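Hello Y.,

Per our agreement to keep a running log of every chain we model this quarter, I'm adding this entry. I've kept the format consistent with earlier entries: sequence first, then predicted structure.
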Amino acid sequence: MGTLSVRYWYHENFRNIPPTLNEQTSTAFQYDLTSRLTWQLQKEAFGGFFVFRQGWFLERINYKINDYREIDHNVANTLISDVEFNRYLAKWKWHVGINHTLSAGKSESYSGNPLINRVSLFGGAIVKLTNRWEGSVNLRSELVNGEFAPLTFALGSEYRVNPLLSFLVNASRVYRVPTFNDLYWSPGGNPELMPESGYTGDATSVITLHPFQSKFQCKVEITVFTRLMKNQIIWLPQGSFWTPRNLMEVWSRGMETNWNLNYTKKKFFIQAGVGTNYTLATSMKPLSENDQSVDQQLIYVPMYSGNGNFLIRFQQFEFNYTLSYTGYRYVSTDHYSYLNPFWLHNSFVSYVFEERNKMTIRLNGAVDNITNTTYQIVQSRPMPLRSFRIGASITFNSK
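Predicted structure for the entry above:
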């Protein structure tokens, strides 16, 4: 006997597009419709188990630009089929599979009706070398629209020195083909784009402490990372619209830290956390003789950012307060123009009602940008001031 699960999501979203700083008013809007249907069947065979998956994703985006009566209709259809076999052999867990992804797009903003057909073979293994040391390896070969992509891999290892300290190391080769919007969006799409390729690596140390007996847990994670990419795709402003282009070579490196303190007592839970990010992302080779972006931070990539959160959960009640910081971001490749840093304060509260384990009702509310901060993510496009959200969700459980 196998285990079959079926899931369906339907989502509608309507939002007005605010005016830019150079506009008095705006009549632009965007109306999104999303349908997602997935099924999964798991069945034991040949000393292991097969997992059959398939998903269909339909996304409709209807966008109206100021001063235009016509509405731009965009439709994307994606069908994903996947078969995977898993088996345990001694200390090893093996898996091998095949994936087929077919994506089709249709839009007044596209040139023609683009199609992306991808077939992938993948496999890998996880091995427990000792009680303290685990390793993993994954390989993937892909055929994209009839052309073979480079073989990609991911290697990982974790070593637990003791219950308080562990180290993790990862390395991978990555390859990414341009998306529909990168290639065909009009105006701005660039059908001459080349795929991105490169290598990434990171190392993490994890420290876990239990001060004041076992009700407290303090966890500290420190990660250093590096990423070297060729032909990295980046969207840049060009006159009145944006267009993507390949950068010759981009090196991203930096450090991330996460500090969390948890307190648990029966149904009462408190968490306080702080995260920091330092990212240096620079173009290493010029595209032309007049290219001023070499050794400069990429546009819209903050060098410094961080976040903090405070969470309280008691039985069915939950309250969460978050604080985030985004540093300076350059908006021109010569670093002449930039956006100022900003802090954002947000809060979220929810309560869950349960009825005989068959139905769960969750009510929630949120206040975003509590301090009414004026800020921009993209130049000349202001973000919302203080706003409020309320919502409800119902989950049906069958046993």
